Amino acid sequence: MSAKKTGKFEDMAKVDKACYEREMKTYIPAKGETKKKFKDPNAPKMPPLALFSFCSVLRIAQKSKGCIPACPLVMLQRNQEETWYHSHAYDTQSHEKKAVEPKDRQEKDVVPYRGKESLMRPKKKKKESSWLKIARKRRKRRKMKWRRKKRKMKIKMMNKLLLEQLFFLFIKHLPPCTQLAPFKEKKK
Predict the structure, then answer these.
(1) For the chain, which residues make up each domain, given as ranges?
(2) Which of 58, 116, 100, 101 is closest to 83 using CA atoms?
(3) How far apart are CA 147 and CA 153, in angstroms?
(4) Cβ–Cβ contacts within 10 Å for residue 54, how many?
(5) Where are the alpha helices (DSSP H) in the chain?
(6) What letter would DSSP give residue 40?
(7) pLDDT tens column, 114-157
(8) What pLDDT, in 10s, does the model give residues 61-119?
(9) How buried is 185 (Cβ within 10 angstroms: 0-12 exposed, 13-18 middle, 19+ buried)?
């Protein structure tokens, strides 16, 4: 690009930067948690999975053969994962054995770290506010009321069904001349 063309874009960038600085002076960040959680750099690292050692062995084998595929890295990783999941147990067993040792080491390292963490920041019991207690009691009462109502409705339905069955049994045993026809439609 020539100097004339680049100068035009540089001027536009200066204008944008001035506008950005002006707006940042009046910017007020949103309330609430916007920052990331603090991650302790001294925390023990997670151990590598058996799959990762399997993938590294596959990569080394492909490099030594000189047959590295020309596909994107994501596709290569997917293929490696598929071979891992579809391979037999005896193929993956050696990699799983290698992954056990770092896992045990990490578990041993975590125990003292967690002890230090609890000494650094003692956990405070959260006091439940009065309105939360009231809300919880109301919710419990509503639940109990609803259960009672459901139970009553169930009993009513059972009684109704029982009465209907008894009514039809009673009608069947009456002599034919006295039987009632409750479901016959009236002629107009």
Answers:
(1) 50-119, 139-172
(2) 58
(3) 10
(4) 22
(5) 3-26, 50-65, 73-86, 89-120, 130-172
(6) -
(7) 776 555 555 566 666 777 888 888 989 999 999 999 999 999 98
(8) 888 888 777 778 788 888 888 888 888 777 788 888 888 888 888 888 888 887 765 55
(9) exposed
